[in-house]
Specification:
The complex is a heterodimer of chains A (213) and B (98).
Chain A lengths: L11 H22 L3 H20 L4 H30 L7 H26 L6 H22 L2 H19 L5 H35 L1
Helix pairs in contact in A: 2-3, 2-7, 4-5, 5-6, 6-7
Chain B lengths: L8 H4 L1 H10 L5 E2 H8 L3 H13 L3 E8 L2 E8 L1 H18 L4
Antiparallel strand pairs in B: 1-3, 2-3
Classes of the chains: A mainly alpha (213), B alpha+beta (98).
Chain lengths: 213, 98
């Protein structure tokens, strides 16, 4: 931890120390605010819930129409509540640097696009055409890919490829495989990736705790 | 060594510089978080935050988190500008070494 008593140093060494201090504190602020793994896990589960619901209650028009909007609304409520709790606990509001805002924007716009696309497809009764499911997988792949490029994170780039491959595979496979592919993508590309991100976040915190201790 | 006047004395203080560097990456942060991250004391941090507030580099808001009172700080556009200017001045002073 920096010594804050010696205030007015102006030698070259002091200035170099100031640069190091800024770098350390900027990194510290970022490290403390980046907690996003749980959001992937949440949305993976939220997206699987309507599928499970429809399988549990087959041939119900009501469930078919309302399971997705209800699940998505629940997802938004849960995310907002958990984010408010995390904010209160940590004492900071999530990062407002350009990188953080870019990633948030990518996912927010992907979500909005997917919702509009989904609403249009539902109203026009075209939601279960295979090209609809493919487009959904591609949207998520695009968001993962863009985020991977911004973060320069190969693991997320790999996840994007898995989403894209799943989408393309659906074009060539029989329609009856859509559920298996969708569930696999959610389990690997959202829940699995989210758990991995959470593990990384926890690991970083542990390293941080050891170095500070 | 180049002259000090190029460096904003409000930003140049170590604790104030640490706080500004922390705040630049977050929308807002409470007093306790800033104290933990800088490892400073209540008194010292409070005094430095007041200086930053007086300079117009941070804004302060008192609020409640549940029943707990909370002092929240946010960097102002003037603070961002001052920090950016400080970095440019540091770069000039340190030359190619940076």
């Amino acid at each position: 931890m920096a010594n804050f008593e010696a205030e007015e140093g102006t030698t070259r060494d002091d200035l170099v120390q100031r640069v190091a201090l800024m770098e350390e504190m900027i990194a510290e602020g970022r490290r403390s605010t980046i907690r996003f793994g749980w959001i992937f896990v949440l949305w993976g589960l939220i997206d699987l819930a309507p599928v499970g619901w429809q399988l549990a209650v087959p041939h119900s028009d009501w469930v078919e129409i309302w399971s997705w909007p209800i699940a998505i609304a629940c997802g938004f409520v849960i995310q907002s509540v958990v984010m408010a709790i995390l904010r209160r606990r940590s004492g900071v509001v999530c990062g407002s640097n350009i990188r953080g805002r870019s990633i948030s924007a990518v996912w927010a716009m992907m979500g909005l696009t997917a919702m509009l696309y989904f609403a249009g497809a539902m109203i026009s009764h075209k939601a279960w055409q295979i090209s609809f499911v493919v487009a959904m997988l591609m949207f998520v792949g695009m968001a993962h890919g863009t985020s991977a490029m911004i973060l320069r994170w190969r693991a997320q780039g790999l996840v994007a490829c898995v989403w894209w491959i799943g989408g393309i595979a659906l074009f060539f496979l029989s329609n009856r495989y859509w559920l298996q592919i969708f569930v696999s993508e959610m389990c690997f590309g959202m829940i699995g990736f989210g758990l991995y991100a959470m593990w990384l976040e926890r690991h970083d915190s542990a390293v941080e705790g050891r170095t500070n201790g | 060594m180049a002259e000090l006047p190029d460096l904003d004395p409000v930003v140049h203080g170590k604790l104030r510089l640490a706080v500004l560097s922390l705040l630049v990456g977050v929308e807002e942060a409470d007093f306790t978080w800033l104290r933990e991250k800088t490892g400073s004391t209540d008194g010292n941090l409070g005094a430095q935050m007041m200086k930053l507030e007086e300079a117009g580099y941070v804004s302060m808001q008192k609020q409640f988190a549940g029943r707990k009172p909370q002092t929240v700080y946010r960097m102002t556009p003037a603070g961002r500008k001052a920090l950016a200017k400080y970095v440019v001045a540091l770069k000039k002073l340190l030359g190619a070494a940076l």
